[in-house]
Amino acid sequence: MRAPLVPVTVAFAVGILLARQAGCEPRLLVVAGALGAAAALSASRRSLLGLLIVWCGAGALRAMAWEAHPSARLIDQLTDEPQAVRLHGIVRDDPVDGIGLDEAAGQIAVIEMLHQRTPDGWRPLAGRVRTTLADAAGRVAYGDEVLVEGQWSSVPAPGNPGQYDARAALARRHVHGLLRVRPHDGVAKLESGRGARWLTALFGVRHRWEQLIDEAFAPRDVGLLRSLLLGQRVALEERLREAFVETGTVHLLVISGFNVGLVAWLLELALRLGGVPWWLRLALIAAGLGGYCVLSGAQPPVVRATLMAWLVLGAMALDRVISWFNILAAAALAILWANPSQLGDPGFQLSFGAVLSLLLFAGGAGRRLEAAFSLLRPAWLRRYLALGLGTTAAVWVGLSAVLARYFGIVSPVSMLANLLLAPLVTLLVWIGTAVLALGTGFDAIVRWSGWLLEGLLEATVRCVLWCHAMPWGSWHVGQPGLPLLLGYYALLACSVRWRRRGLRPGRILLVWTAGLALWSWSAAARGVAQSRWLTVDVLDVGHGDSIVIRTPRGATLLVDAGSEEAGRFRVLPFLRRAGIRSLEALLLTHSDADHLGGAEVLLEELSVARLLTNGARGDTLSARRLQRLADEQGIAQAVAAAGARLSLDSGVTIEVLHPPPGLVPGVEADSNDNSVVLNVTKGSASILLTGDIEEAGLAWLMGWVVLRGVHVLKVPHHGSRLGAIGERFFEAARPCAAILSVGRAHQLPAEETVQALRRAGATLYSTREDGAVTIRTDGRRVEVKTFLVGTFRAMPEDCGS
Q: Is the distance from CB of 159 to CB of 80 less than 8 angstroms?
C-alpha cells in the first residue's frame, strides 16, 4: 500500500466521531479493541480489519480522554450570569490588544488558574479562562503570575442558526470560561518569567516587529501587514474585509500553509546561496519554520502547515520517497492525537480539504491548461497561468460545497483573485519578513524600505477591490443541507474513480446532469412543502430584539436588528444561512440601541426595499448614521402607526396596533411606550409582537384595541415589570406561548411578570435558555421549535380561543 496511514487516520477519525455522537461505553471499546488486536495479529485477511478496529477504538478513547480533561470540570462551577471572583493563575499565551476583536479596549489573555479565593481561603482550581482586562486594570505578559479580581461566567453557546460557535472554539484550547476585569477591578502581578524562556524570547521579537510596523506605516497598512506577516486578527476597513471574504482570498490574511511554504522557500534559497550543506539546510529550515510558527501566534492553520512541512523535511532527511497522501494522513493523525476536538474545527477541515483537492485535481488540470495555452509566450507565463488556474480551480471544486455549508458563500471570482493576488502576497511575505528580521536590530531598514511595502499593499488592495466589484463574482447562498453535501462529494469521488478507469467525460457529465436534476426536483418539492407556512423567528440577540417574518411566498420582514454587535454576528449570519439576500421591509419599533444598532450593518450588506419606523426621529449617533445611510441608498421610508397594514403576502395580515398617529400623548417621543406593536395573522392563527411597550403604552393599546386570545406573544420589554396593567394585558391576550427576548445581564425577566404569564396559561420560552424560537403556522395549526431542541411541537388545537 502506497499510503498505509490513510486508512489508519480515517479509522481514528471515525472513532472520534463515534465517541462524540454515539457516546460509546469505554468498556465496550476496550473489548472491541482487544478483539481487533487479536484479529490484527492473525495471518488471515482479517488482519487489516482488526488493525482498523484497534485504531477506531483508539480514536474513541482519545476523544473521551480529551473530554474528561480536568479543566472541563470548570463548566460545572460557572453560570450564565456573571459572578464576582478572585483568582490566582499564570498567563499562558501572548496577550493581544482587544481593539479590533470583540472588546473596545484593553488586553485579551488566557489565564491558567491555580487557586480561587473562597470564604474559607484559597483553594486549588484547574482550568483556563479567556480574560478581558480593561486598560485601567493593568497590563500583563506571557508567563506573569497574577492575582485578578473580576466577574466570570460560562462561554455562551450559539443561540441562532449560522452563528459562530465560540464555546466550541475555546473548548478546543481547553478554555471553558470568560473573565472580565473591569476598570475598577484589580490585577496584581506577583512574579514574571513563569513561562518557557524560549517562548518569552520569541514573543519579545514579535513585539519588536509589531512596534516596527506600528511606527512606520499608516493605520490601514498596519492592519494588513500585521495580518499578512504576523497572522494577527486586527480591525480592517469593513469594505476591505468584505472584499477579501467575498473574493475567496481571506485566507491570505491568515498565516497558513501558503505563508509557511513561502518562508520555507525563502530559507532554502538563502541557505543554498550561503553554501550550507543539505542536511544542515533541512535542520535549519525546520527550526526556522518552528520559530515562524511561534512568531505568528502558533495559530492552528500555521501549526498544521508547519507539521506537514516537518514531515516532508523528515522524509527528505531519511531519503525516503515522499507519498503526499501519506504525509497528509500522518499530519492529520498527529494533530487529532494531540487534540481530537480539531476534527470539528472548520479550519482543520478546510486546510486538509484544500491539500487533498490539490493532490487529486491540480496535476491533471494544470497539464490540460498548459496544453490549452501552448501558443502563449513566454513559457514561464504559460506555466504560471496553468499552475495558478489549475490549483485555484482544484481548491474551488474541492471546497466550494464546504465553504457554502460553513459561510453561505460561493465565489467563482476566487480563481481569478487568487491568481492575481498570489504573486503580490508572495512578494509581501518575502520582503516584509526579511525587512522585519533585519529591522529587529536596525530599525532604519524598515523606514528605508517602507515605500516598497506600501506600494505592494496598495496594489493588493486595488486588486482585491477590483475583483470584488465584478458582477456575479460571488453569491450568498443558503446553507446547503447535509444530503446535498454528501451527494456532491459522492459524485466527485465517483468522477475521479471513473476518470482514472477511462470512462468518457461525456458519460461523467451525464451522471452530473442527473444529479443536478435530482437536486432541482428535491428543492422544488421542498419549496412547495414550505409554501404553506408563515414563519416567525425570534432571534437570540442578547438583551435586544430581532424578529424575522417570512411569508409563504418568500417575502421577508425584519422587525428590529438588535445591537450593532448582534446585527453583525447574529442577525446577518442567520439571514445569510437562510439564503435571505433582500428584505421587503425593515421595521424598527423604536430607536433604542438594542433594537436599532444592527440596522446599519444590514443596510450595508442587504437590499432593503422599505424602512419603517414609529415616526420618532432618534437623536443618537446610531440613529443619525442609519438615517444618513438610508437617504444615501434611496430607501423608501414610512411611518408605521396604528391602523396601518403592511402588504407582503395576500394570505398574511400584518396590522399595526400601536403607536397612535402622532405618538402616545404625554410621553417622550423616544420612550419605550411608543414602540410599534404588530399583530401578524394567517387564517385563525395570530402572533402579537409588542416591542418594548410599557405601562403608558399598554394603557393606550388596551383602550384602542379589543384584545382576544393570541397564539404567541412576544413579551413586552424583555419581561420587565409592568404592574397591574401588565397583568390585565396578559389576561386579555391569553397567549398559549410567550417568548422572552432576554440577555445574560439586566436581571430579566422580572419574577412577577413570569408569574403573571403563567397565570394567564402561557408556556414560556426564553432566547437566553432556548436560543432562537421559531413559530410557523399554516393558518390552522401553530408549531413552535427552539434552536436547542430543533424539532417542531404543535400547540393545542384550542389554543387562542
A: no
Dist CA 85 CA 119 (whole Å) = 11
The angle subtended at Cα 52 by Cα 46 and Cα 58, nearest 5°, is: 140
Instruction: Tally Cβ neighbours within 10 Å of residue 647.
Output: 11
Closest CA to 115 of 131, 127, 100: 127
CA dist., res. 160 & res. 773, Å (int): 9
Structure-block grid coordinates of residue 241? 474585509
Cell 482479517 maps to which residue?
Answer: 46
211-265 tens-digit pLDDT: 888 888 887 788 888 888 877 766 677 778 888 888 888 777 766 666 777 778 8
CB 715 within 8 A of CB 738: yes
What amino acid occupies position 661? P
Where are the alpha helices (H) located in 606-713, listed in sequence order? 621-633, 695-704
Q: What is the pLDDT of residue 102?
A: 43
Instruction: Give CA angle at 438 (437, 441), nearest 5°.
Output: 100
37 pLDDT band, cuts 50/70/90, is low
pLDDT digits (tens, 9 = 90+) for 533-556: 999 999 999 889 999 999 998 899
21-43 burial: b if 16+ Cβ within 10 Å, else e: eeebeeeebeebbeebeebbeee
Confidence of residue 801 (pLDDT cuts 50, 70, 90): low
CA atoms in the 13 A half-sphere facing the CB of 679: 23
Q: Using pLDDT thresholds of 50, 70 and 90, give the confidence band for residue 151.
A: very high
DSSP three-state, residue 538: strand
**What mean pLDDT is reported for the chain?**
84
Of the CA atoms within 13 Å of residue 544, those in its CB half-sphere come to 26
Identify the pLDDT of residue 282.
85
Strand boundaries in 427-530, DSSP class E: 475-476
**70-194 CATH choice from 3.40.50.300, 2.40.50.140, 3.10.450.350, 2.60.40.10:** 2.40.50.140
Q: Cβ of 568: how many Cβ atoms within 10 Å? A: 20
Mean pLDDT of 581-606: 91
Place of cell 479550519: 347
Q: Domain-by-domain residue ranges, the chain?
A: 5-67, 70-194, 207-343+414-476, 345-410, 492-530, 534-792
21 — phi, psi (to 5°)? Answer: -95, -40
pLDDT, residue 41, reads 55
- Under a CB-based contact definition with an 8 Å cutoff, are residues 654 and 680 in contact? yes
The pLDDT of residue 104: 47
Q: Please say whether the beta carbons of 339 and 332 come within 8 A.
A: no
Fold (topology level) of 534-792: Metallo-beta-lactamase; Chain A (3.60.15)
Task: Supply the DSSP string of 93-149, one letter for each residue.
Answer: S--EE-TTTTSSSSEEEEEEEEEEEETTEEEE---EEEEEE-GGG----TT-EEEEE
* Residue 676 binned pLDDT confidence (cut-offs 50, 70, 90): very high
What pLDDT, on the 0 to 100 scale, is given for residue 459? 92
The CA-atom distances, in angstroms, between 433 and each of 26, 290, 448 are: 49, 15, 15
